[in-house]
Structures
1.
Amino acid sequence: MAPTVLLEPAGRSCWDEPLRITVRGLTPEQPVTLRTALSDEKAVLFRAHARYRADAGGELDLARAPALGGSFAGLEPMGLLWALEPDRPLWRLLKRDVQTPFVLELEVLDGHEPDGGRLLARAVHERHFLPPGVRRVPVRAGRVRATLFLPPGPGPYPGIIDLFGTGGGLLEYRASLLAGKGFAVLALAYYNYDDLPKDMDILHLEYFEEAVNYLLSHPQVKGPGVGLLGISKGGELCLSMASFLKNITAAVIINGSMVNVGGTLHFKDETLFQVGTNKRRIKVTKDGLRDIVDVLNNPFEGPDQKSLIPVERSDTTFLFLVGQDDHNWKSEFYATEASKRLQAHGKEKPQIICYPKTGHYIEPPYFPLCKASLHSLIGGPVMWGGEPRAHAMAQVDAWQQLQTFFHKHLGGEEKTISAKL
């Protein structure tokens, strides 16, 4: 019997779904190497490999067999995805067009030489970002530039606004996947997209207020308030929205700050100035990467106090998801200080979940760790922190935590696919 690769689900799955990988038809205890490859939208190749040994019956089930080395070791059923590394240095895996899948190629090679063994079997699998039945609706409403993702059926559904960081543009992949869990999710651009400003030197919260009102007025979105989900600069903006705007019920802040960074923020007659920076505090690693974790000034001293987001004004329920090895900025410090400030003003204590050995970009499950890439504000390569396996585990847990949190505080029926590593 020729060796065959069995994938469950077969043929296609959503990116955040676990994938069961089994090889049958091997000889008893045969040594093999499994190799995965994926080409992103810029034709950059990501690859991983691991060495295995078949069982006494000639079967290899990655849910039961530990990897014996390679890109990872140990029992890691999803390691061949989360351990993918780019051929191009300083490159982050991103999905810009959620209407097309990533195509994963999996090869089984004889022996333990990742590049030398005879090809025994091969499979191709599509990993999709638009779950079955989810509708993608481009939005140009007033000033709002966004994409709305609606679950199948008439709803109404809990509404969430999704914000990314300083890269700008419009990223949809997190919103599209989350819509598959029973939420109406608005992926919101705020600069460097369409006719929006080209930079974020000056941002106006009225724009974000317009987005909240748009979402709440949609017939398939149920009120009375909306949720916010943001990472990095997007998390910081979510804190500002929750502090100044009405109708924000719940907010998930992924590695955000509690100070205004990279520009000035206006709302009506109030202004948050950008926190000061000192580039002399940049450390350079032996690999030539910049460690910028200490660049921002202490916001509790001198004029930098004018950059502090007044979280104590907010009646929003918060969940902070923190990578304890975040080298972009001091996410754990900011989450802790926001919690202290809220409690000092009689507000509800927020939930803070800290993930050890986890870096800045906490993504949906199975995205490979981006160790370092170019930073648009720094203008050079920076390290983001994190160790691949710990970071991968954190992403699976964080994805489940934020869904549970939003279902609890925004209502709606919980629809989850248990993600496993």
2.
Amino acid sequence: MMAASPPRGCAAGFPAEGRCGYYVEKKRRFCRMVAAAGKRFCGEHSGAAEEENARKRILCPLDPKHTVYEDQLAKHLKKCNAREKPKPDFFVQDINAGLKDETEIPEQLVPISSLSEEQLGNLINKLRKASEGLSSTLNDHIMSHPALQDAINDPRNGDSATKHLKQQASILGNIEKLKLLGPRRCFVEFGAGKGKLSHWVDIALKDAEKVHFILVEKVTTRFKVDGKHRKKNSMFERLQIDIQHLCLNKIPVLREGKLPVVGIGKHLCGVATDLALRCLVETYAACYEEKNEEPLAKRIKNDKTENDMNTLAKEGNENNVPKKWPPVAGIVIALCCHHRCDWRHYVGKEYFRALGLGAVEFHYFQRMSSWATCGMRKAPLEDTNITTKSKDHQNDDSKEHDDGEYRITDDSTDNLPGILTVEEKKKIGHLCKLLIDQGRVQYLEQKGFSPALQNYVDPLVSLENVLLTALPIHSSSPQITG
């Protein structure tokens, strides 16, 4: 057990009245859980109390993030939130995972720090050759929205809160620019965390009719904001599921309501972006198209004239929604954490193969992508081993991806052969991110979308400042151009 009282010289003071007296060394403060009447510690830390020494607390076998009394384990397992629950109808095992090719799974690969100068040089040459013709500078589309102005200007905000609000404002501004902000549609927020992006979209829509929000998050999240919405015209539904297994077609509101979907996300980490794209344009859109005569791509190809397309786009009803609105009306996702991508789930495999690249190169490029944002950061004074790596695919608002408090301590950032300067590493990291994102762009193009990449906030606000947007090719909403 850690010390139950702060070390000498600590400015933590004393626990608040009625709160646990256990001092959490890692957080440099007392536990904030409520202690039972007459007790010094909360249930989680009661093992530190002398009167509780007779009872032993052990790690929960379902979730080692919390503990339980050993003599109450059987009772706890029946109600633990981490216990396996019946799968909902929209759970379909690995439906968005992509095909698994055993022949492409690389053998145990050595860390980048163990590569020779020649091996690392060959990788970098492959990267530069594959990136030829790609513009390394994206267009800036830093936008805002009046719905967030009061919140951004609130003097009570700290730096972190202001940064997140600026990002949400720009994403919302881009959604509006793409004409995706309107009535009679369903916004699906992937990696929703607390649900703040959907919260602001709902506020911006005001009293728009028949708007539904589906918030997808793998883990249980505290301080959710979607529960605050009780308006008649908008409905919030939270799904606790890994995107890898999510079948949107089996969600009642989408199966019965026939609402066009707008996929959104703020800092959707690595592999979760690929899973979300496949969930939208393969699992959902493809299934929808199968029910409607011919596929989207074939319909576009068979359109005889541009005038026919314009006529289709302008067809509408009293709510100004086209009668033949595509199943996926648009995609607006802020990208993040390319070092957490996975070859099996990556949607741009075809693009990589066309460049003569495969699973091995992808593995090293994804690791080197961290050089662009995390490799040169100042590590925390107390602990240089903090990392953003996690088994969870999806965004967690409790973790910052871009505020400088975390540093990737993967061996790809340290102890490299002495052939690269800091600036060169940074440029290589950006090239890796660009190449991975370009594979996603080509994937969306092949699926009948018009995608684009742009910088949506200043790097001082977030180092992860790239926004991926996409509209169906025959949509009436024009894609943003430089």
3.
Amino acid sequence: MAPGNDTQISEFLLLGLSDEPELQPVIFGLFLSMYLIIVFGNLLIVLAVSSDSHLHTPMYFFLANLSFVDICFTSTVIPKMLWNIQTQSKVITYAGCITQMYFFLLFVESDIFLLTVMAYDRFVAICHPLNSMVIMNPRLCGLLVLVSWITCALNSLLESLMVLRLSFCTVLEIPHFFCELNQMIQLACSDTFLNNMVMYSGIMLLAGGPFVGILYSYSKIVSSICGISSAQGKYKAFSTCVSHLSVVSLFYCTGLGVYLSSAATQSSHSSATASVVYTVVTPMLNPFIYSLRNKDMKGALRRFLVEKT
């Protein structure tokens, strides 16, 4: 294949997490187990919120959307990885790679936006408790989710179209278990200046911007909690934020750790291994984080499971 002749590109090779044959059954079993936990755990939350009228509030509406996105998020990458291990193949078609990259970007950005919207909901509930139901009305909640989806879809489309303009050389091996945007750009042998500019601008606007919004919301929340006179009131207000804070910390810290570690070590395989934390582990832990410390959610899950048995 001649460099720059992108019309002949038909497939890429996903190198995965390890080249060791004896580790493939272990990786397959581990990721299959985690994927099943992610799907069933998050699906239970979606069904419990939908079926229980007590949970028809903005907080649980956004939580159900987050759980749905987590299912879609992991379904974009894990099934293909499991299929490749099972068939002992590393191939992904060019069209399949672009499609996977688009949906991965769409869902990971949607995750970020939903976490930001949930922080805003906690800010309204704690700082403006008397007007919270008026401010966070169903119309606004639906509009926030719709705007998030549209923004993420447009940015993902832009990033994908920018990759389509690239020419690739003879080395089409992606040292990852899915088609990650940065790895795709690094494989190109044409000029990638515009791609890098769009990618880093997108990270700053769609990851950095929401993170600043989350920090601002929680600075106001902490200030408001400190103004509560009773210790019981402070504990009750703070306890409504613990689950969300845990998920935000896990998502952002692991995501930031992946990029810092890859920049420090310059090892693509290390980056692929580290990215497992925010692409698989975080969506797997979300249902436990939101249900184990939440009496309303535990009650709704119990009622839902009893009705179905």
